[in-house]
């Protein structure tokens, strides 16, 4: 299993495109009053909408979607759920490939 770090900025709303498992993946990461959330698009098709981002909790939870892995936020300084102010520093987004 390979793990890659996805670069995020400490902004309240951002969209980025990455290539994972030779597939184009778009991530929309945004802060709401109830926490940090993420949408995942695979080859221009939305496969996850409004997933809550929690420390060490996989975001996608569905192998059948064809992503070939899952995203996990990691608190490098404790065990708090991520907030946008710490993205790219305290809170790191990783992708663990299963294939």
General description of the model:
- This protein has 99 residues and is mostly beta strands.
- 0% of the residues lie in helices and 54% in strands.
- The chain is built from no helices and seven strands.
- It has a four-stranded antiparallel β-sheet, with no helix packed on it. A three-stranded antiparallel β-sheet has the order 1-7-6, with no helix packed on it.
- A hairpin with a 2-residue loop joins strand 2 and strand 3.
- It is globular and about 30 Å long.
- The termini are close together.
- The model has no long low-confidence stretch (mean pLDDT 95).
Helix content: under 10%
Rounded mean pLDDT is: 95
Strand order of the largest sheet: 2-3-4-5
What sort of overall outline do the alpha carbons produce when their principal axes are compared?
A: globular
Uncertain runs are none
Strand percentage lies at over 45%
Radius of gyration: 12 Å
Helix-strand pattern? EEEEEEE
Ends: how far apart? 7 Å
Total beta strand runs: 7
Largest beta-sheet details: 4 strands, antiparallel
Structural class: mainly beta
The DSSP helix count reads 0
Regarding quaternary structure, what we see is single chain
SSE layout:
Elements: E1 2-6, E2 13-20, E3 23-32, E4 35-42, E5 45-52, E6 69-75, E7 91-97
Antiparallel strand pairs: 1-7, 2-3, 3-4, 4-5, 6-7
Sum this structure up briefly.
Helix content is 0%, strand content 54%.
Q: What attributes characterize this protein structure?
A:
99 residues; mainly beta; three-stranded antiparallel sheet; 7 strands
């Amino acid at each position: 299993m390979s793990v890659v770090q996805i670069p995020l900025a400490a902004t309240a709303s951002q969209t980025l495109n990455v290539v994972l498992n030779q597939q184009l993946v778009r991530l929309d990461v945004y802060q709401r009053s109830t926490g940090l959330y993420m949408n995942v698009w695979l080859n221009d098709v939305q496969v996850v909408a409004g997933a809550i981002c929690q420390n060490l909790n996989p975001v996608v939870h569905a192998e059948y979607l064809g992503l070939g892995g899952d995203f996990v936020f990691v608190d490098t300084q404790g065990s708090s759920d991520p907030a946008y102010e710490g993205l790219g520093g305290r809170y790191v987004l990783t992708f663990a490939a299963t294939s």
